[in-house]
Design a protein that fits this description.
Layout: H1 5-23, E1 28-29, H2 31-38, H3 42-50, E2 62-63, H4 64-75, E3 81-86, H5 90-96, H6 100-103, E4 106-113, E5 122-123, E6 126-130, H7 134-141, E7 145-148, H8 152-164, E8 169-172, E9 183-186, H9 189-205
Parallel strand pairs: 3-4, 3-7, 4-6, 7-8, 8-9
Antiparallel strand pairs: 1-2, 5-6
Length: 206
């Protein structure tokens, strides 16, 4: 199934809202209701969910429990996935402490760094490994995903080692593009702030 990246991002939002509605006791939701919650059009919601073969019933909408199951399967969060973090600096430590990873089925199994002052220390529930252990830990723990939270200068080499060791997907916090044979999602914090600054400036100028 090939789904456009923008649609995938919206599927994640649908899942979040559907889970929230279910927790509140709601059992069905219409495309119109979802569109209002997410500032979309009903037609967009129907097109997005249509990619999954999900169709609402006239006058009823979508049954939430099956919708959640279908969204989780499509997004690949219907089972646990082992993850490693490379970089135990400020971003890495914040990610280690982020509780929603576990709630979404992303299990952090190891943390790596090159700083001798950090290697061997415990961060949250994890002992920090040196990079010499990277390949053996990935093989032992059957790691599928890697999070890169290292400086730009070493991000490419770290990404290459992760991919060569069998990691299939990378979440990249380094401010650079990675040329590796794997799925990469870039998290551009500064770019997001610049976009926000532009939006605020536009409102001020109105």
């Amino acid at each position: 199934m090939t789904i456009p990246r923008p649609t995938v991002r919206r599927l994640s939002l649908y899942l979040r809202e559907a889970e929230s509605l279910l927790a509140s006791g709601t059992r069905t939701v219409s495309s119109g209701e979802l569109s209002l919650l997410l500032a979309l059009t009903g037609a967009q919601v129907r097109r997005d969910l249509g990619h999954l073969g999900v169709r609402g019933r006239p006058g009823i909408g979508y049954r939430i429990t099956p919708l959640i199951d279908r969204l989780r399967t499509a997004l690949g969060v219907d089972r646990s996935r082992n993850v490693v973090i490379v970089g135990a600096g400020r971003i890495g430590r914040a990610l280690i402490a982020y509780p929603r990873f576990g709630a979404r089925g992303f299990r952090i199994v190891a943390v790596f760094d090159t700083d001798p002052k950090v290697i061997g220390r415990r961060l949250d529930a994890h002992i920090v490994y040196g990079l010499d252990d990277l390949e053996s830990v990935i093989e032992k723990e059957d790691v599928e995903m890697g999070i890169i939270a290292v400086p730009e200068a070493v991000a490419e080499s770290v990404a290459t080692r992760l991919v060569d060791a069998g990691v299939g997907g990378l979440l990249n916090f380094a401010p650079c593009r990675l040329d590796v044979d794997a799925e990469v999602v870039d998290v551009d914090l500064s770019g997001s702030l610049e976009e926000l600054a532009w939006a605020i400036a536009g409102r001020v100028d109105e």
